[in-house]
Amino acid sequence: MARINIRELPDHIHQAISESAIKNNRSTEGEVRSILQSYVSSLEAKPAVAETYRQSWQKGFGYRLDQLFACVRRDQVFPITEPQSIADIARAIGEESPANLLDCLDGLSSPTFDMLDRIIGWSGGSHRWLLSGMGTVFPVENIGNKYQDFFLYDRHSKNVTFHLLRICGGRSDGMILCVRHDIAKKIYASGYIYEHFMLKEGMGSGGSGNLNRFIRFLKTNCGNRALKAYNYEETEMNTQQGAHHPLHYIRLASQADWLRKLFSGEDPANWLAGYSPLWTDMDELPFGNGEAE
Questions:
Q1: What residue spans in the chain does CATH classification 1.10.260 cover?
Q2: First to last CA, the chain
Q3: 53-132: CATH class
Q4: 242 in Cβ contact with 139 (< 8 Å)
Q5: In terms of C-beta density within 10 A (0-12 exposed, 13-18 middle, 19 or more buried), how is residue 130 classed?
Q6: For 189-202, how does the pLDDT look when each residue is reduced to its tens digit (9 = 90+)?
Q7: Model pTM?
């Protein structure tokens, strides 16, 4: 076997090797041999393979998918008596077996866009958040300047119900959360209005005028639609739109009569103070669907 003679080895290195040999119950020569073997083994070790972009994305998607399923269970989107195992979810979204869904959760596989659409349709989650992690778990949009599009969705359908929730308390006090439920398609959509007007006193002339136009729009264009008004008492003091499924808010809200009062030109709780002349003809305004008879 090969031999190595080492000249001019510093004394402190020789001493350290000798002390280590004693601790390991080896000769000095045996200790040097062990040190060299460890060094060569480290050179032969395979370098760590960097994670690819695809692997990184798949892991992130799997983590978010698991979060989405947890949120669906937490918010009781489906009856608690309905099984919600991964196998049951796979069946509900139309998968032939749980395998593909499990691989996605483990970060081993990527979903097809068709599979992604079916997951979103089943859960009501956010397409953008699930793909990129941006936004919120459940989609919600600011519809302050485009509420017409939101409420005129499929305007001739009788299977669409609108739930209007007034947030009471917290940092979003006075905000209106609008939930659209397409009963036939089993799809929920959420939007909020806050900057344009607030359902509380002290909103000023601009806010009062915007609220007046909104109520006139609902009465004349959505008179044939199912509109339900609620109060949602905020207990966490920090409502974050999109943190929960719309059913969570509806379930915890209580029915209210503020929309009926506004349709009649009445002031629910000093919201219209100083701007009551804008509402004098509201009660006489007929309900309609925005189309000429």
A1: 53-132
A2: 106
A3: mainly alpha
A4: yes
A5: buried
A6: 999 999 899 999 98
A7: 0.77
